[in-house]
């Protein structure tokens, strides 16, 4: 049976919100496509956001200089991570697709979702020095940011005061998701639903509903493959700079001093 | 008396860390320059990271659809924000300079510090629709990100696998700090101190020590002024696009489709 597993990591305080409606739409459509769907409702779970020694059961190795990544790596090796982290890691490991549903807070995820990334994506479990980016541990898994904004779309353009949305998405999509190997699907952006009329909000949900029908077959965004980079400096090999610029275009982050390719963090195949 | 007030918002779990040493250096040097220095030690304070209805004393206006920004705006108006938020707002309001000292977690601040931004920078207190960016509420206050990385500097270049550090800094420096009006000083970046030899770490701290001597006289980074943008769409007025590109250069976010100016989020006057 080719049943697909979906994890929705959901970060809104209120069941009456647009974010809740977007999450519900995903649950319904994906179940109707024979997916099994789990939801991590972070506020309802009172998910712990802060990365502390309490995330480890038993002794830490170096209490005088506690280093979170190294200590949790060791705890993960020895099965001594706290139960809430272990449970989220189980869900993540089983998933074929992960949808993060949240309101954009200060140009990025709310703290409770940042805490999920900080605590669940443990060194060893989610990445190692060798297994990152296109060699990453989750390279068979798809991931997608689905979020609402407070600002209108015009403000997030390359001439807008908030700046190009591709720039704002880079640290999240490249720095977290692709870093762990995830195939990053184009983000689902709901532009300022709070300022829209009810029919505007309905139209946004209808478009999401339509997209959800084919979501699992979508192609991911392009990120420059690991083997284009020198394996020591992690800079593009000189012979690959022009190749990258010509063949794929640079990306928002690895832009090689060229103009940023429009929408490279927003649409696949650009 | 022209005594300056400095707030250090510090987010590391361990007093034995490089981040702690960087924080201590700032406290010592700035006190020696006759500044008064307050430190918000977020982990020691067990600072609450998540934005919830518990941040409001008394009734919320709309429990069926709790909207954090609107509810906390109202609570701020009426003096009903929780004591921990009010105390941080007092420190922020009194400060001439704010230093954020943290380890970079997943290309941005750790969740506990994101929670400080989410909860302390209340609508009404820190920004309004009218008072943002160069018209922002904190335009007389300087702010600075001081952080350690896990990656080497080469990885964060325009040809590096992590992408241009200017791109990664934009959402934090423009989207949070400059959004609230802060004059953003060039970031203090400690590249991979954990991988450096002891003398390398000492040299990094010595350079920070030297910089701290003149920190309060530094010029801030350039962000395109508010009046260059149309006041409805918040896009650059057409007549200002070429002007911006020629006079100041575009910025990492508002790049106008031009190549990103090198170091515009890293050095003043570029």
Quick rundown:
The structure is a homodimer of 270-residue chains. The first copy, chain A, has 270 residues and is α/β, with parallel strands linked by helices.
Oligomeric description of these chains: homodimer
The overall pLDDT of chain A, averaged over residues, is: 95
Instruction: Please give the count of helices of chain A.
Output: 7
Shape category of chain A? globular
Beginning-to-end CA distance, first to last residue of chain A: 34 Å
User: Main beta sheet of chain A: strand number and arrangement?
Assistant: 6 strands, parallel
Q: Give the helix proportion of chain A (percent range).
A: 25-40%
Task: Give the radius of gyration of chain A.
Answer: 19 Å
Low-confidence runs of chain A: none
Q: Which structural class matches the secondary elements of chain A?
A: alpha/beta
Percentage of residues in DSSP E strands of chain A = 5-15%
The secondary-structure element order of chain A is EHEHHEHEHEEHH
Number of strands of chain A: 6
Largest interface: A-B, 74 and 74 residues
Model description:
The structure is a homodimer of 270-residue chains. With 270 residues, the first copy, chain A, is an alpha/beta fold. Helices cover 32% and strands 11% of the residues of chain A. In chain A, strands 1, 2, 3, 4, 5 and 6 form a 6-stranded parallel β-sheet that branches. In chain A, strand 4, helix 5 and strand 5 form a beta-alpha-beta unit. In chain A, helix 1 runs parallel beside helix 6. The radius of gyration of chain A is 19 Å and the shape is globular. The two termini of chain A are 34 Å apart. Chains A and B meet through helix 4 and helix 5 of A and helix 4 and helix 5 of B. Chains A, B: It comes from Neogobius melanostomus. Chains A, B: It catalyses: 1-(beta-D-ribofuranosyl)-1,4-dihydronicotinamide + a quinone + H(+) = beta-nicotinamide D-riboside + a quinol. Chains A, B: Belongs to the NAD(P)H dehydrogenase (quinone) family. Chains A, B: Its EC number is 1.10.5.1. Chains A, B: Keywords: Cytoplasm, FAD, Flavoprotein, Metal-binding, Oxidoreductase, Phosphoprotein, Zinc.
